[in-house]
Amino acid sequence: MRDMPCVSTRGDGPNGRRVEGFLYKYREGEDVRIVCVCHGRFFTPAEFVKHGGGGDVAHSLRHIVVSPSPPGIVAVMEWEQ
């Protein structure tokens, strides 16, 4: 979990919902996969943007914000295992 950066995206419009997840696969030569926090499902970047309420976009990775995993989230997830 420590090596899984947090990601988020926001749907279209002023009331677009924010969806958060973790980068699951992101090494060179592998397809990028994101697991959403709300459902635990795995998505491609384009699917993740749609999951957040966004539409079809040309460059889905430009609509996803990546940040380091906050220590509190890692601690909670390790405790739950």
Automatic annotation (TrEMBL):
Domain Tify positions: 33-65
UniProt xrefs under InterPro entries: Ninja_fam, TDBD
Record's keyword annotation contains Nucleus: yes
Presence of keyword Metal-binding: no
GO CC annotation: nucleus
Compartments, record wording: Nucleus
UniProt record, GO biological process: negative regulation of DNA-templated transcription; signal transduction
Residue ranges crossing the lipid bilayer per the database entry: none
Keywords linked to the UniProt accession: Nucleus
Superkingdom: Eukaryota
PANTHER family with a match to the protein in the record: AFP HOMOLOG 2 (PTHR31413), NINJA-FAMILY PROTEIN AFP3 (PTHR31413:SF31)
Cited function: Acts as a negative regulator of abscisic acid (ABA) response.
Family according to the record: Belongs to the Ninja family.
Protein's name according to its UniProt entry: Ninja-family protein
Organism: Musa troglodytarum (fe'i banana)
